[in-house]
Specification:
The complex is a heterodimer of chains A (541) and B (327). Chain A is α+β, with helices and mostly antiparallel strands. Chain A has 16 helices and 21 strands. In chain A, the strands form five sheets. Chain A has a seven-stranded mixed beta sheet with strand order 8-9-10-1-11-19-12, covered by helices on one side. Chain A has a six-stranded mixed beta sheet with strand order 14-18-13-17-15-16. Chain B is mainly α and 327 residues long. Chain B is built from twelve helices and two strands, in the order H-H-H-H-E-E-H-H-H-H-H-H-H-H. In chain B, helix 5 runs antiparallel to helix 6, helix 7 crosses helix 8 and helix 10 packs across helix 11. Classes of the chains: A alpha+beta (541), B mainly alpha (327). The interface between A and B is large, with 64 and 60 residues.
Chain lengths: 541, 327
């Protein structure tokens, strides 16, 4: 490449950086340029190393990044969060919402050559996902039977309508397993757990623990001519600095879910061969938050909670601690759900310039007067043990709450200790946290606010223990409401009530970042991003 | 017959080691129970969500619903039959997991140990022979620098210089994953990947053994037998080679034997920085995952390793210095 060619590209990057609004709409680097080239080995870095390949019983993020290359689901999703065909070529929902019929794609074969049929769908849903999948137990709770009138038809019988189920049928949420492989033996300790056999574009070859997983092209894939890649390798590099270095030396081609931390993204972005995108996470929608223990003083008082919500400067935290990768959050449902109308911004707004003044006033009103030393009361703040950003966020919270007379002591533990404290013992006052609101509020959001989700020992459910009869009812209705407009109205009402009561402080919608070599093309093509099969990804020579 | 004698000695020592190892295993088990949180919580935590039914089911299948005493007895019973148990997190037997990671660890450890002991001994002896000359000063300065440099920083700096800037070595891993070499090319590939992690870890131990050897040689040179040897008319280099080195190397060996355990621990940092797929990294990860079966298995293997290495060191003593008897 001559220097002349280099200049416009450099400019383009500069422009891209300048207009890198939080939505990353300007980052076009990952879009297809020219026609796809065949072959090559794509090396992605996955962090941390997945504990298992059994995506039917572990929803850990890294598992999804690898298992989705081997297993497929009944459906995929587009950027409007609408279902699109995958193993099911069409589907119909009965008017009462209690019968869902899937027409399967004929001629699909598993990697061992056996055909994929409705028997496999029945087995996967009824015997595996409904029983051992952490979220499947919930997603398929209303499914009473899957009938198989013929090999290419699967009929789901439901005890009540379940609109959220249609959002949870991707290969990541609900992989379809071969009955002839997994049908025998104990599913929770199956010998094929780490020898997956699926219908996907890549076949599992080997897993060298601590090093890599290797997947080779499935020559009999159902989509002719795909996948473009010959091979896909997932590498595991525990050290953050080394991951960034490997990206810089082009030993690895891509890494997502913040495998390259925001602080390094800024540096790597300047390299001519590195591209960055925040697309492909629209079905994760993580929200950073501060959780109150609403059952104990001082945070049992809504005024005190609102005061904290006013005092924290979301924009400051976003720009300085998360390097701008996100948007200030308004409430419990991510603005990604504007795509299907469930989101509303019409809620109580805590993002105001005079937040600290309002907070001081609220605390005065709540009877928390300042003492002689200016301190109203003292609390312990638990910091999420997920890395550097969180510690800095904790330090910011400490300083900022100091301004409104709350003296904060920080406490940092390791992950298991912190989980036990927050979700089993409820032995906390204020903790930072982040929650994936997932593909549908019914799956990702209800668990944080419903009284039925106050379950000691179960993690990432309602640990603030706030609930009201009205909000419980709204969520119960939204679970079974089939009319999208009515369902949206229920959620708008829910958002207003939750934000008003402020059982958590909604900080910002976190943008995960995928850093990739510019040789990588056609990524991402769906909101599932790294959780998609990547059959159309190609590597420029 | 010394050969037979040392074999009997080795067997006796190994027999004595069995109760030691079991007691250590029981202590490990109990100490690890003090850590709050369990494997089920971590698994569910990584998943980002789970139902109570799912958590209860996990705990039951992990055996976490049993009383602590029962869990301990079951574990010791398993150990006696050399069964290290099952890692629920990885969904495979612990012994297989450890087996797949043992070779990289041993490769790294043995390289580091051999290079640092051999080169350290030579450098230390050389420094002592050139006491207070520029060679000695240079070696002392370099060793202090190497000893004082944090391992992770040294590793990252080597990556910046030799991988990113010069492009001589890969940043991480044990083999080139895009190529998947076979046969001799694979051996070369692994050796190529081994250089940076081995150099990083060697720096620290090399410095240590050099210092130790230097002091030890100086001490030996002040001994009466050296005076005798001089009186016999031996040259200084003959004295050094035949008498002093043999005696001086004993403390270095002792130290190396003791440090095998520490080397496994110190390897965690290097394994992390260079993504070297060793046991140290596995232990580190399983601690944060509260994968106790796996962690206990690794501890067990390390205990055995330390016992064996110390036995080897003791036998080596008697070879170097026949006055030391094995009994």
């Amino acid at each position: 490449m001559t220097p002349l060619h280099r200049l416009p590209r450099g400019l383009a990057i500069a422009v891209a950086v300048l207009v890198m609004t939080p939505l990353f709409t300007a980052s076009q680097s990952a879009l297809a340029q020219g026609s796809p080239q065949k072959g090559g080995t794509l090396v992605m870095v996955v962090q941390p190393e997945p504990p298992t390949l059994a995506s039917y019983q572990s929803t850990a993020g890294p598992v999804g990044q690898v298992a989705t290359k081997v297993y497929e689901g009944l459906l995929e999703y587009d950027f409007q969060l609408k279902p699109t065909p995958s193993l099911a070529q069409s589907w119909t929902v009965s008017p009462d919402g209690k019968t869902v019929t899937f027409k399967l794609l004929p001629g699909v074969k598993f990697h061992d050559g056996k055909p994929f049929t409705s028997e496999d769908v029945q087995f996967s849903v009824m015997e595996v996902l409904k029983k051992v999948h952490p979220r499947g137990v919930n997603t398929f709770r209303s499914v009473t039977a899957v009938e198989t009138p013929d090999a290419m038809t699967a009929v789901f019988r439901l005890s009540e309508p379940a609109p959220y189920m249609m959002m949870a049928l991707s290969s990541y949420e609900s992989p379809m397993l071969p009955k002839h492989v997994f049908g025998t033996g104990d599913i929770t300790r199956h010998p094929n757990a780490n020898l997956p056999v699926g219908t996907g574009p890549f076949k599992f070859v080997e897993w060298q623990r601590g090093q890599f997983m290797r997947f080779d092209r499935n020559p009999d894939y159902r989509k002719p001519g795909l996948p473009h890649l010959d091979r896909l390798v997932a590498r595991f590099i525990a050290d953050t600095g080394t991951r960034s270095a490997a990206m810089e030396t082009q030993e690895v081609h891509m890494g997502g879910f913040n495998a390259i931390p925001p602080v390094d993204v800024k540096r790597l972005q300047a390299l001519p061969y590195i591209g960055v995108t925040a697309k492909g996470y629209e079905m994760q929608s993580p929200i950073v938050q501060l959780d109150f223990n609403t059952t104990r003083p001082p945070f049992d008082d809504v005024k005190v909670r609102q005061a904290v919500a006013y005092a924290i400067d979301r924009k400051f935290v976003l720009d300085n601690i998360w390097f701008g990768f996100g948007r200030p959050a308004t409430g419990p449902i991510s603005s990604n759900f504007s795509a299907n109308g469930l989101y509303t911004a019409d809620v109580k707004n805590y993002n105001v310039p005079n937040g600290v003044d309002l907070a001081n006033k609220l605390l005065d009103d709540a009877g928390k007067k300042r003492g002689a030393d200016g301190v109203r009361f003292e609390i312990v703040h638990d910091v999420t043990p997920y890395g550097e950003e969180w510690r800095r966020f904790g330090e910011y919270t400490q300083q900022q709450l100091g301004k409104i007379g709350i003296k904060v002591t920080l406490r940092v533990e390791d992950v298991p200790g912190w989980l036990r404290r927050v979700y089993t013992n409820y032995d906390f006052q204020l903790t930072s946290n982040w929650i994936q609101t997932l593909a549908d509020p019914s799956i990702g959001v209800h668990r944080l606010y419903h009284s039925g989700s106050i379950k000691p020992g179960t993690v990432f459910v309602n640990s603030s223990r706030w609930n009201t009869k009205e909000t419980d009812e709204l969520m119960d209705k939204a679970n079974v409401e089939l009319d999208p407009k009515k369902r949206a109205a229920l959620y708008h009402d829910l958002q207003k009530r939750v934000v008003e009561a402020s059982p958590l402080v909604f900080m910002h919608e976190l943008d995960f970042v995928t850093v990739h070599n510019k040789r990588v093309n056609n990524f991402p093509l769906s909101p599932l991003g790294l959780y998609s099969s990547m059959d159309q990804v190609w590597l420029a020579k | 017959m010394p050969g037979r004698q040392s074999l009997a000695y080795a067997l006796r020592r190994l027999a004595q080691a069995v109760p030691t190892v079991l007691v250590i295993a029981a202590m490990n088990f109990l100490v690890l129970q003090l850590a709050p949180g369990d494997a089920a919580e971590v698994l569910a935590g990584e998943a980002g969500s789970a139902t109570p039914e799912f958590m209860a089911q996990l705990r039951k299948s992990f055996g976490l619903d049993q009383p602590l005493g029962v869990q301990l007895l079951l574990y010791i019973k398993q150990l006696v039959t050399l069964d290290l148990g099952f890692s629920f997190r990885h969904n495979m037997p612990v012994i297989e997991l450890i087996g797949s990671r043992l070779f990289p660890t041993l490769l790294l450890m043995v390289s580091v140990l051999l290079i640092s002991v051999i080169v350290g001994t030579l450098l230390g002896a050389f420094a002592a022979r050139n006491l207070n000359r520029w060679q000695d000063n240079l070696i002392s300065m370099l060793t202090v620098l190497a000893y004082a440099t944090p391992v992770f920083w040294a590793g990252l700096m080597l990556i910046v210089v030799f991988s990113i800037n010069l492009g001589w070595f890969p940043t991480s891993g044990m083999q080139q994953v895009a190529a998947f070499h076979e046969g001799f090319a694979k051996v070369r590939d692994i050796a190529h990947h081994l250089v940076l992690p081995a150099v990083t870890l060697t720096m620290f131990y090399l410095a240590l053994y050099t210092r130790l050897m230097r002091a030890s040689v100086l001490e030996q040179f002040s001994m009466d037998y050296v005076v005798t040897a001089r009186a016999k008319g031996l040259t200084e280099s003959q004295i050094a080679r035949r008498h002093v080195l043999r005696n001086a190397v004993l403390p270095v060996l002792t130290m190396a034997g003791v440090q095998v355990g520490g080397l496994l621990g110190g390897a965690v940092v290097v394994e992390t920085v260079f993504a070297w797929p060793g046991l140290g990294l596995l232990a580190y990860e399983s601690l944060f995952a509260r994968d106790l079966n796996l962690l206990l298995g690794i501890f067990f293997i390390c205990t055995c390793l330390v016992v064996v290495v110390n036995l080897v060191v003791d036998v080596a003593y008697s070879l170097l210095d026949p006055r030391i008897e094995l009994r």
